[in-house]
Each structure stands twice: as structure tokens, then as C-alpha cells.
Amino acid sequence: MERYIEFEEVVSANDLQEVLRGRNPEIMILRFSKLTGTVKVKMAKRMSKNALKRAFHPHRIKRIYTQFPLQNSRVGT
């Protein structure tokens, strides 16, 4: 199951991997999108939005998308 996550603050891949390594090793970071500012993650099992938010604590999640969030990108502006 893949999700796209938008964080409230700018986070690095190293920061996210450190958080996940200790709590949820079944969540993998696949890529960062500069276009939309989201992080694509893959989970081994289905997780609720609240469980996903807890997995990335102390980093705060702004939004979780099920599909690539093109409507939020500013292409052409």
C-alpha cells in the first residue's frame, strides 16, 4: 500500500529514516517529490491515518494522499 505524505515542516530523508527505524521498520520511504512537496511511502500492511501519523512522530503530517496530489502542484505558474 502506497501513500503520499505532506509534512508541515521541511524534513530530510535521514530524519524520517531515523524515526522509522526505531518504530516502524515496515514503512519504506520511496521518494521525495519536489513538484508537490510530498514523500511517497510504502507500507507492508494497511495502516490508519492516525497510526501513520504516530509512526512519523515528532514530525507533524499536514495531509495524507492515496494518489499523487497533482491538484496541489503549481505547474505553469
Secondary-structure element series: EHEEHE
Strand order of the largest sheet: 2-3-1-4
> Unreliable runs, pLDDT <50, ≥5 residues?
none
| Strands, count | 4
Distance between the termini: 32 Å
Mean pLDDT: 88
Structure characteristics:
single chain; 77 residues; alpha+beta; Alpha-Beta Plaits; 4-stranded antiparallel sheet; 2 helices; 31% strand
Notes on the protein architecture:
The relative contact order is 0.32. The chain is built from two helices and four strands. It is globular. By secondary structure, the protein is of the alpha+beta class. The model has no long low-confidence stretch (mean pLDDT 88). Strands 2-3-1-4 form a four-stranded antiparallel beta sheet, with helices on one face. The protein has one domain (2-66): Alpha-Beta Plaits (2-Layer Sandwich). It has helices at residues 13-23, 49-55; strands spanning 2-7, 27-33, 38-43, 61-65.
Explain briefly what this protein structure is.
The protein is α+β, with helices and mostly antiparallel strands and 77 residues long. Helix content is 23%, strand content 31%.
Q: Strands, helices and their partners?
A:
Layout: E1 2-7, H1 13-23, E2 27-33, E3 38-43, H2 49-55, E4 61-65
Antiparallel strand pairs: 1-3, 1-4, 2-3
